[in-house]
Amino acid sequence: AAAPGTPQAWRQHEGPRRVKRAWVIPPISVSENHKRIPHLLVQIKSDKQQPGGVIYSIKGPGVDEEPLGIFSIDKFSGKVFLNAMLDREENDRYRLRAFALDLGGVTLEDPTDLEIIVVDQNDNRPLFRQDVFTGHVVEGAEPGTCVMTVDATDADDPDTDNAALRYSILEQGAASMFSINATTGEICTARPGLDRETMGVYNLTVQAADMSGDGLTTTAMAVIYLEDINDNSPEFTKEEFSMEVEEQAAGVDVGKVFVHDKDLVGSPSWLAKYTILEGDPEGAFTIRTDPHTNDGVLSVVKPLDHEVRDRFELTVSVQNEQPLEPTAPPSPRALATVCVRVRDVNEAPVFRENPRRISVLEGTPPGTPITTYTASDPDTHQIQTLTYALLYDPADWLQLDPHAGTVRTKRELQHPSAFLQGGWYIALVLARDDAEPPLSATGTLSIEILEVNDHAPQLQTPAGVLCGRPGRGGTLLLGATDDDRPPHGAPFHFQLSPQQPQLARNWSITRFNVTHAVLAVLAELPEGPYSLPLLLRDSGTPPQEQQQLLNVSVCHCGRDGTCQDGVLAAATAGAGITLGALLIILGSILLLLVLVAVGAARVRGRRRALRKGLLERSRDDMRDNILNYDEQGGGEEDQDAYDINQLRHPELFSARAKPPVRRDAPLSSGTPLAPRKLPNSPSDIEDFINEGLEAADSDPSVPPYDTALIYDYEGSGSVASPLSSIVSSLTDEDQDYDYLSEWGPRFRRLADLYGH
């Protein structure tokens, strides 16, 4: 058995049970940090003493296991010693095994446990978990509002007072606005009156002490921030602000007004909102908040006019974006007066009526005043003179008085014109003042060229073909055009000439639509050409009318109401060619003949002998045979169209049957001329043709205008080719008759006949 020093513990006991109890060693307690070393802890003995003695040993942590060398035993006496200071915070107990052996190494006792308990000493200070604790609380918080909790730890035995901590506030300022729970370390507000604008941050020194506040201590910082609330209204830095702005300026900043707010800069409680209460009935100004400085920025949104108003006195108020907290002291709305002076500057002239619209009759003579287009100068407080000039006058129709602004016609205004847009002529007028620098303005002058009814309607096709039997193709559709624009054009009125009432017995005209009428035959008429004088009138104001001739060819009617013979219809359709068209055709032929004559005259001198020789040797008549072209004959191979003897001996045929008088001949007919003398030489051909043309125009007994006239042969020995050869050398593909349409309505029929 073993005991820590009492003889009773080492008494011998009888029986196995006493031996077992004697070998049991109770736990041994030793204080940490024991400084007297080596220190006897206990002496162990075995009841089984041997004559040679007992050998004792111990094993376990602190002996033969880490940490080594802390404990040792005297193997003969069984005394256990402490060889080093212990630290309870490192190891609070050691469990060893004790052995008893005889000298031969035989175990005398079963191994027993030896437990050494390290008794704690207060050798550790409390430690805060962080050096600085941070908390937040709104300003004006009620007492007892918890802000934060500080906490500390102690490495000593928590079951002893060595680790029993207590908290306290060592320093927080004179106000003592906060308190701390000694046991939990919770910091709360202690009294009312927290004001961020007065003190925004509180720095507290807190302490933790063990031994229930009487032992070791440590400190830390607790920083408490007050959160802002809107408990302060913004205030203007002064009661009146002065600014200046130029007139006619818009969208520019005039100036700033300044305010001060005690609340946290940049927070919603600090941000200001401005309002213009008075002095701006037209809404010419606006004010906004600068988000960085919280200043009010005054701007002009509508142009100001110095001549109308040169000074504005605005009343401006300011308040926060967020409403004040109910706990905030009430305060009146902050007001300030802003005086804005409008500075006078030179302004451009202004056309009060822009564009100016006027109406002028077409054909207005040059020099006619049509309007006075002037501008006004807004600078009534400055003496300035305006001058005017035409900036845009594409047709050069106008002239402008540079001082009075009177617009006159420079030349006659024509309609239609390429410079008109929908009947309107656009010009630009420039007005300029004499300031330094000068300013100008542009006015638009829109002139409506009014249509004047100065054109009578014209027949679209002054000729036509119809069947001479009433009710069976005996109608012809007539159309008309008018160069005037509405309302001076259609509807057109067609009627037979009132000067010849006898026409109404055989003809009638009825309206078809606003531009066409239908000519109808009332009685069966013989075939042949007819000239009907028609009166055409438009719907203008006043109306224009004109009498025109309609050339009508009456053909033989077939069963279906059309011309029976297509060839005859085609021939009679040619009868619709007007006198003007015939004259043009004859003039063209005459021009060709003149060119031929000129060419012949140049070589006549050299070839005179040759021509005479040819004439003497030739007994045959070299004159070309004249063909009747209004009869569809056999071409140049057909020699029966006319008897050539009529040209060789006209005096023999002059007394024959007189040709019928033309139905379209004038009422007063001239006396037919006597047979003319044949030309003696090719140079006389031109005079001969002109005489024949004049005779044909004045003689009613000759065939109609569009019937081929018989002239004379071209002379003997001409080096020029016959005209028929010139014409026959050109095919239809070589000719372009579209230009005839540009000569007017009377030539459209020719263009249709020859151009397609």
TrEMBL record:
Keyword hit for Signal: yes
List, alphabetically, the SMART domains matched: CA
Q: Which domain of life is it from?
A: Eukaryota
Give a GO cellular-component term: adherens junction
InterPro entries in UniProt:
Cadherin, Cadherin-like_dom, Cadherin-like_sf, Cadherin_CS, Cadherin_Y-type_LIR, Catenin-bd_sf
Database matches in Pfam families: CADH_Y-type_LIR (PF01049), Cadherin (PF00028)
What the entry lists under CDD domains is as follows:
Cadherin_repeat (cd11304)
Kindly state which keywords UniProt assigns to this record, in alphabetical order: Calcium, Cell adhesion, Cell membrane, Cleavage on pair of basic residues, Glycoprotein, Membrane, Metal-binding, Repeat, Signal, Transmembrane, Transmembrane helix
GO BP terms: adherens junction organization; calcium-dependent cell-cell adhesion via plasma membrane cell adhesion molecules; cell migration; cell morphogenesis; cell-cell adhesion mediated by cadherin; cell-cell junction assembly; homophilic cell adhesion via plasma membrane adhesion molecules
Please give, as recorded in its UniProt entry, the membrane topology of this protein: Single-pass type I membrane protein
The transmembrane segments are: 579-601
- Identify the residues that the record assigns to the Cadherin domain, covering every copy: 22-128, 129-236, 246-351, 352-459, 474-568
In residue numbers, the region (Disordered) covers 658-684
Q: Where in the cell is it found?
A: Cell membrane
> Which function does this protein serve?
Cadherins are calcium-dependent cell adhesion proteins. They preferentially interact with themselves in a homophilic manner in connecting cells; cadherins may thus contribute to the sorting of heterogeneous cell types. M-cadherin is part of the myogenic program and may provide a trigger for terminal muscle differentiation.
Q: What is this protein called?
A: Cadherin-15
Which species is this UniProt entry from? Answer: Tyrannus savana (Fork-tailed flycatcher)
